[in-house]
Input
Amino acid sequence: MQAHIAIIGAGISGLAAARTLHEAGHAMQLFDKSRGSGGRLSSKRSPFGELDLGGQYFTARDPDFCRAVTDWQKQGWIAPWSPQLYQFRQGRLQVSADEQTRWVGTPRMSALTRGLLGELPVRFATRICEVFRGDQHWQLLDADGQLHGPFSHVLVATPAAQASPLLAAAPELAAQAAATAMQPVWAVALGFQQALPTPMQACFVQDNPLAWIARNASKPQRGGAIDSWVLHASSEWTRQHLDLSPDSAIEQLSAAFGSVLGTTLPAADFSLAQRWLYARPAADSGFGTLADAQRGLFACGDWCQAGRVEGAWLSGRMAAGNILQSISAA
Output
């Protein structure tokens, strides 16, 4: 029996599920509200090179995920990044002893999801607002009033707050998604024509509005004739400053960056800001995936498992496994 499956969300979790279902011989249709794949692994192209504003890197521990990472590296979608890593704590900046392998998409973080997407069918710039079931099949309604379907199964692979209303046909799943708290993050990119005089290429930050600093230009295959940096504010600071204008976020986080370096930054030649409302789950929920096999409605995402790229991929694979079991049992 070949199923026809709708997958809402073309981030790492939705794509992991899509590839698994495709390899099992089933038809699916991906939907994403954005103009391209990636979710929080999205990147921005600029005249000064590729800028990773969302996920900065990922690590690999699970054996299955490690095997996938090896394959992605062979495909040229990712490469290891070994930055000169520092930590800033209690007003002191020092070299970090952390030597774990970090992976980044090449030439930008979203290249990984572009590779996973391949030729799979996808409708971008399509915001699904409602998922409902008739006598036998699922239908999707988008923000423009267009219906999509019929589908035998639906997988919701969006952040928890966005997933909850799409899971309304299974109230217990919707409640679990609604109860999953997500943390916001302000992200700022800065570019300087003259490189900042520091050997630091990445830094974990405490006791400061910032939580993370990366010399974006130090990542593999990031071109451009500018010294580009990405700053991530702490979730606590972001919650307190959710309503800042982008210009104010740039000003305040640039000052925090300067305090880490112990200097006043020169005026940036390029800057932009983005607010991620659902950057990461506040805690590890541990349920891996959500499933109502009887109705044929499922959910996955990093918010279901560990909150990392690895967790998102594992959750998507687990959701695909649940769907395949449901199909076999039908």
About this structure: Residues 309-329 form the longest helix (21 residues). Residues 65 and 310 are 7 Å apart (CA to CA). The first strand starts at residue 4 and ends at 8.
